[in-house]
Amino acid sequence: MKKDAKIDIKLVITAASKKELPETWIRQRGYPIVSTQGLLSGVLSRTSKAYPATSILVLITGIGSENAARSARVMKDHLHPHAVINVGSCGFNGPTGAGIPGEIIFPATTQGPSGKKLRCLKYPPFPIPEDLHVKRTERLQSLGTPLFKRDRQFAEFVDMEGWFQHEILDMAGISFCAFKVVTDLCSPDSPDIYRKNLPLLKERIKSILSFLELSQRKKKISVVIPVYNRSWCIKRAVDSVLTQTFPAGEVIVVNDGSTDETHTLLASYGNKIRLIRTIENRGVAAARNLGINASEGDWIALLDSDDTWERDRLLNQVKYLDQNPFLEILQCDEAWIRNGKRLNKKKYHQKTEGWIWHQSLERCMISPSCVLARKDLLKEHGLFDTAMPACEDYDLWLKITRHHIIGFNPQKDVVKYGGHACQLSFKYQAMDRFRIYALIHALEEETDETRMEILKQAIISRLVILSSGALKRNLKQDVVIYRKIQKELEKGVPKCAAYPFLLKK
Questions:
Q1: DSSP 30
Q2: Is 343 exposed, middle or buried (0-12, 13-18, 19+ CB in 10 A)?
Q3: CB under 8 Å to 139, separation ≥6 — which residues?
């Protein structure tokens, strides 16, 4: 089977058996349910007209290790989605008296029969309801046969599919996680208990997959625009938001201690905008955070005060989210104008969709003015670091791209203006200092050894460049600090707090 050109599958939800799914509910919301054999026989191509706008597929794998592995090979060879989520039943193999049918677990690792472990996604690749109780457990162990008697040599939660899919997908670089619902207690009467709990299982899976519900897609978007002493361009930015074909729920402009005519201009908009004014200039990170925390919407659209939006910016992104409802953050493309002239972007600046953490190490691959993100996602990762004079967006995007799929709708719906004297890139020398701070911060939080090594190499390459520049300018003390950080990297993990110099303005 060749990959179908009409349907670009980005997220696959797998289940061992159709009887475990709220099948009618899923189909009514416009999502195809196919079997592994059906996928191989080309059923997805034949049903593409019925599901023209979806990027999500529900795949019935069949029960047991062999069927799970076979389905994973098919996904690897013919779909290669951004992520696979395995949902369905599991048994509770823990202490007698514990374990509750209907309990939802989200394991940190899957484990094979022999004990080998694989790490799952730390965060689900889609939003889950705040009121949904999910137990984060260390592991889910997959066995080759059902467990009809509790056996403490195995994990507390067991199934027959998760690890067998995960093993093959992991080798192909496809991200994986599982949501499992306890349906039996690993006892001789497990089959009867399982059948009794099937209705409960379906309701739990419906709750897990509630992001597929059309009513969940109604979005109130809060636009946040920070500004400091930009009376020459702020009206252009605000007007581009107020003329959107998809109106924002609110437009928040944070006047971050401006001393020019900015406040007078903004006050003239009256109740068309929410104007927040600070007495002191605290920086763009603090201004954005203030606006986000004051917002009433569940989605945040950012706009820098020197940029503008095309009229359909929000409309195009909302449409894209309707087609890809698992996304929690996305960006559009942008046109660049510098000193009045349109620029062509280099190939390495081209944006892409998916897991973009590796690309984001080299340069900032997400533009604030292009972003639409769930407010809860931004808050979960700490918002913008107010200690950073610049590159605060690089820091936050590193945290988010590490754990979340980044959506990308390719319309050039943002115009970025550059070349003016008040750009932060003109204000600070050796801007890579701030990026090194962000990279060290990421290294402190990283637990994966491979990624830790990647981060170290990224830091070292920037330190070499900074050292070379400092030597040319005869900044010997700076060179000493850069070399000290490099030596510390050879021994272990340096601490951001030990190098306040990196944030020196």
A1: T
A2: middle
A3: 107, 108, 109, 110, 111, 117, 155, 156, 157
Please name the amino acid found at residue 384: F
pLDDT of amino acid 4: 44
Residue 423: the pLDDT is: 62
Nearest 10 degrees: Cα torsion 48, 205, 24, 12: 10
Only one residue has tokens 């592995």, namely 69
Handedness of CA 243, 244, 246, 251 (dihedral sign): negative
E strands, 164-214, in order: 175-184
378 CB-contact burial (10 Å; exposed 0-12 / middle 13-18 / buried 19+): buried
Residues 58/21, Cβ–Cβ less than 8 Å = yes
DSSP-based three-state secondary structure for 387: coil
State the CATH number of the domain containing residue 37: 3.40.50.1580
Strands, E, within 202-258: which ranges? 221-227, 250-256
Residue 131 and residue 52 share a domain: yes
Backbone angle region of 18, left / alpha / beta, with phi > 0 → left and psi within -120 to 50 → alpha: alpha
- What the block records as the tokens of 84 is 């696979």
**Per residue in 211-221, is it b (16+ CB within 10 Å) or e — as a string?**
bbeeeeeebeb
Name the burial class of residue 114, with classes exposed (0-12), middle (13-18) and buried (19+) by CB atoms within 10 angstroms of its CB: exposed
Are residue 101 and residue 190 in the same domain, yes or no? yes
Asked if the model's pLDDT at residue 32 lies above 70, the reply is yes
Of 91-100, 441-450, 494-503, the least confident = 91-100
Domain-located, residue 247: yes
Could you tell me which residues are beta bridge partners of residue 107?
137
Q: Which two tokens stand for residue 186?
A: 């690993």
The answer to whether residues 262 and 343 belong to one domain is yes
Return the SS3 of 471: helix
Q: Strand, coil or helix: what is 372?
A: strand
CA separation for the pair 158, 90 (Å, rounded): 6
Strands 329-338 vs 341-343: parallel, antiparallel or unpaired:
antiparallel
Judge whether 31 and 51 are in contact, CB under 8 Å: yes
Tell me the C-alpha distance between 184 and 165, whole Å: 22
Residue that the structure tokens 């940190």 belong to: 108
Arithmetic mean of pLDDT, 83-111:
92
Provide the domain limits for residue 466.
432-503
Contact 434, 394 (CB under 8 A): yes
Instruction: Select from 423, 444, 345, 361 the least CA-distant residue to 395.
Output: 361
Q: 12 to each of 62, 132, 185, how far by Cα in Å?
A: 15, 21, 28
User: Percent of the chain, pLDDT > 70?
Assistant: 93
Residue 57 CA to residue 140 CA, distance in Å, equals 23
